[in-house]
Design goal:
This protein has about 500 residues and is an alpha/beta fold. It has 16 helices and 19 strands. About 35% of the residues lie in helices and about 20% in strands. The protein binds ligand BES and zinc ion (ZN) (2 copies).
């Protein structure tokens, strides 16, 4: 789908193009709608009077006149936030998708301030593009539903150059979101740890410094917690490091760390068939870090961001680690592995410790599809937020509300952490069944020292089967906007 921005005075009527007018309630018919009315000899006022159309949020009315098809699309009173404007765009996309036009024209001729119109149009365009995402690459016939694909959207606006610039910014953010969706949707026989590394290496083309630690290098660093997880797989384990140095005058940075388990069978503590059906998405945390790094680099944000992903595959094999094994993590802390399916925390233990030690970030946010229990607690709507720092968790919560990547604060009292003490090692990797998401978070806390840190348990939000205004089902791209906004507001 392509966007072109055209000056509104250059509006040309076209029989085979759908003209979309965004309409406010009780507002007189716009200049351009009047022109169309005169030309096509239809009385839009009469049509409106005889319909129930009230220009409510997302409401639409199709007028098939002989020489110019028109869609009136309600935007209500325009008292909404950025996010609701985006949702309006998603609804508009769903509305026009089925109508069969290849090109549609969005005509912005509202009687509102230029600033408001700019915001409205740019966010609507974001929503349209966002809702259009599909993962159909493995379908031979991906237009089996016989719908003609929408190719062009022409935007007629007074604010031509501004809208143009916004389309560019939207493209950078959506470029990241779509990458995250692609990675999370990709099956595990394709997105192996090696293929994930290829994807990281490709980032050097957009100015990201890339460093890949292989098994030998990690071995030397003592990352036995991470390495132990990959022992039962033919795929090699890696630590991928991405550096975006957008502010060369400043040494300070912030870090995003992701769990990248390309497939989680559970290892010798094997999951059930049902339980491992969706486990290609267990690299979802790393997928979010990738999407955010891409958006940050494309937008050339003037901040320094470190992205780190721990890449492993958790498989059962003669060489796999066993329940009862003890490993020494890079931090020196020893861990008794009582359940090989609690592997994400082992990967993160070393990835977090390494990131903190090497880059001394101002704060670290890690993202991981860590526990099934967080889905029981919060469903698919909000990620679990665990943090040792109130300022950090408050700002993540607030930006979440703004961007729509919602979180909910969970507790981290010491008592939960006590459940993770082992009788023969410093820690064990599972506690009791109750409160297991909090115990998992408490386990991670052992590896970040006093650095401000937040852990987002994203097991419930990386995938969503039901549709929303901005999402058509499947991988959600949750978190890219959140991390992008956090990075954007960073002062160094
Ligand atoms: N990757 C899973 C968590 C998960 C479950 C993500 C469902 C998405 C959907 C994780 O590695 C895991 O298996 N966790 C166990 C921990 C348990 C053994 C303490 C869990 O949640 O059951
Ligand atoms: Zn697991
Ligand atoms: Zn897992």
């Amino acid at each position: 789908m392509q966007f072109t921005v055209i000056d509104i005075n250059e509006l040309i009527f076209k029989k085979n193009e759908l003209f979309i007018f965004i309409i406010q309630p009780k507002i007189e018919i716009s200049t351009y709608l009047k022109k169309i009315q005169n030309k096509s000899k239809i009385d839009i006022k009469i049509i409106l009077e005889n319909s129930n159309f009230k220009a409510k949020f997302g409401e639409s009315l199709l007028i098939r006149s002989s020489n110019q098809p028109i869609l009136l699309f309600g935007c209500d009173d325009l008292i909404y936030t950025n996010l609701t404007y985006e949702k309006l765009g998603g609804i508009l996309f769903s509305t026009i998708k089925d109508l069969g036009f290849k090109t549609v024209s969005l005509i912005s001729d509202l009687k509102i301030s230029s600033a408001k119109e700019k915001k409205l149009i740019s966010k609507i365009l974001f929503g349209i593009k966002s809702k259009s995402y599909e993962f159909k690459k493995y379908k031979n016939n991906n237009i089996s539903d016989n719908k003609i694909k929408l190719k062009f959207i022409k935007i007629y606006s007074k604010n031509q150059s501004f809208i143009q610039k916004q389309i560019e910014t939207n493209g950078h953010i959506l470029g990241g979101i779509f990458l995250t969706k692609d990675l999370t949707s990709e099956p595990a026989n394709i997105l192996t740890t090696d293929e994930f590394v290829n994807q990281i290496k490709a980032f050097s083309e957009i100015g990201i410094e890339v460093e890949i630690l292989d098994e030998d290098q990690m071995n030397k660093l003592g990352m036995n917690a991470l390495l132990g997880v990959g022992k039962g797989s033919k795929s090699k384990s890696y630590l991928g490091v991405m550096r975006w140095n957008g502010n060369k005058k400043e040494k300070k940075n912030i870090a995003f760390v992701g769990k990248g388990v390309c497939f989680d069978s559970g290892g010798l503590s094997l999951k059930s068939g049902r339980g491992m059906m969706d486990m290609k998405e267990d690299m979802g945390g790393a997928g979010i870090v990738m999407g955010a790094m891409k958006s940050i680099a494309l937008q050339k944000l003037k901040t320094n961001i470190i992205g780190v992903v721990g890449l492993v595959e958790n498989m059962p094999d003669a060489n796999a680690q066993r329940p009862g094994d003890v490993v020494r993590s890079m931090s020196g802390k020893t861990i008794e592995i009582l359940n090989t399916d609690a592997e994400g925390r082992l990967v993160l233990a070393d990835a977090l410790y390494y990131t903190n030690k090497k880059y001394k970030p101002e704060f670290i946010i890690n993202l991981a599809t860590l526990t099934g229990a967080i889905i029981s607690a919060l469903g698919n709507e909000r990620a679990g937020l665990f943090s040792n720092n109130d300022n950090l968790s408050k700002s993540i919560f607030d930006i979440g509300e703004e961007t729509g990547d919602l979180v909910w604060k969970m507790p981290l009292d010491k008592i939960y952490g006590a459940k993770m003490k082992s009788s023969i090692a410093d820690l064990k990797n599972i506690g009791t069944a109750e409160g297991s998401s909090i115990q998992a978070a408490s386990f991670l806390k052992n590896f970040i020292g006093t650095t401000p840190w937040a852990h987002l348990d994203v097991a419930g939000v990386v995938w969503k089967n039901n549709q929303t205004e901005l999402h058509s089902g499947g991988a959600t791209g949750w978190g890219v906007k959140l991390l992008f906004e956090i990075a954007k507001r960073q002062k160094y």
